[in-house]
Amino acid sequence: MIRIVKAGVQHLPQIREIYNHAIINSTAPFDEEPKSMADRIEWFQMHQDPKFPLVVAVEEGVVMGWGTLSQFQMRSSYRFTGEISIYVKGGSRGKGIGTKILSELIELGKEQNYHAMMSLIAAQNVKSLGLHQKFGFKEVGHYKEVAYKFGQWHDMFVMQKQL
Ligand SMILES: CC(C)(COP(=O)(O)OP(=O)(O)OC[C@H]1O[C@@H](n2cnc3c(N)ncnc32)[C@H](O)[C@@H]1OP(=O)(O)O)[C@@H](O)C(=O)NCCC(=O)NCCS
């Protein structure tokens, strides 16, 4: 059975592996260089604040996916607006894991008194757009050719849900 739980430090190597696989093989993240463990430890520590939760979908100790809430922009007036990241392990997609993670992040966002939730999604990422639309996120912005990865320009959709 898949459970969504707060991530522990023991999950970090698998979280990193899922993210680095996405960096190397896709335009889902616009990072280009794999993340070191030192970088991920710093990131993990930032997500120990309940305002910025890091959750994992776990099945028999295996991390099938992870999700975070971060502050949308660091300037203080943005403190009630969260930004979502979700990554499901290759081979486990399309089975409802992303749905479980996003549902939990929305609940945690409400608990933390967020007013709005945002996701920045590469325009060609139809799966992620579909996932967010399913939860009532609406397109509020379309940035044109703002990212350059794998030798070409990419557009980005800004998706938003009010809580
Ligand atoms: C995007 C991602 C998180 C979705 O997670 P998932 O576990 O595959 O998604 P689910 O199985 O829960 O599907 C959720 C919804 O996504 C949408 N979806 C999934 N696959 C889709 C596809 N091929 N085309 C269109 N919509 C799709 C559907 O709305 C689906 O809901 P439904 O099954 O009730 O119709 C996952 O595919 C992933 O990790 N992709 C790579 C990383 C990534 O893109 N992260 C997001 C960065 S913004």
Description:
This protein is α+β, with helices and mostly antiparallel strands and 163 residues long. The chain has one domain (3-119): Aminopeptidase. It is built from 4 helices and 7 strands; from the N terminus they run E-H-H-E-E-E-H-E-H-E-E. It has helices at residues 12-25, 37-46, 97-111, 126-134, and strands at 3-6, 54-59, 62-71, 81-88, 116-122, 138-149, 152-162. A 7-stranded mixed β-sheet has the order 1-2-3-4-5-7-6, sandwiched between helices. Bound molecules: coenzyme A. Coenzyme A is lined by residues 22, 28, 86-88, 93-99, 119, 121, 125-128, 130-131, 134.
Q: Which terms would index this structure?
A:
29% helix, 163 residues, alpha+beta, single chain, Aminopeptidase, binds coenzyme A
Question: How would you summarize the topology of this molecule?
Answer:
Elements: E1 3-6, H1 12-25, H2 37-46, E2 54-59, E3 62-71, E4 81-88, H3 97-111, E5 116-122, H4 126-134, E6 138-149, E7 152-162
Parallel strand pairs: 4-5
Antiparallel strand pairs: 1-2, 2-3, 3-4, 5-7, 6-7
Coenzyme A (COA) binds next to strand 4, helix 3, strand 5 and helix 4.
Number of domains: 1
> H/E element string?
EHHEEEHEHEE
Helix content: 25-40%
Residue runs with pLDDT of under 50 for 5 or more positions: none
Summarize this entry quickly:
The protein has helices at 12-25, 37-46, 97-111, 126-134; strands at 3-6, 54-59, 62-71, 81-88, 116-122, 138-149, 152-162. With 163 residues, the protein is an alpha+beta fold.
